[in-house]
Predict the 3D structure of the following.
Amino acid sequence: MSIDKPDQAIEEELKLRQIAPEEFITQRDKLPLSLRAFLDPHTKEKYEEMEAALFLSEDNNSGFGLKPDGGLISVFSLEKEKGPKLVQEALSRGAKYLSCCGEKLKELYEETGFIINKARKLEKGVRPGILGL
């Protein structure tokens, strides 16, 4: 499967900058608790250990992280409509796989080209739904 770089309109709307873990965490944690449940709450140390590149929108309302091996992590947005654009931007920067839970997230990622490689039944402490390209 080939994935083209997002069109110019998406790039103009979503101006991202790479930032330090502390700033990323501050903005990520502004999500309502009901939405934070869908994110792994990585610490500054964990992001550094993973050598994750962290990106945040200019308005500080959206962001994601990329691990060196293409793992997409910590995708968040305070604006629902930015989800697909964020994922397209992550793909253009090398995202290859992710782990998620919940039907809405599964649909979002499948619509942008990810396919389910592994599905696990939701169990306490287990994060199901590993998707890849």
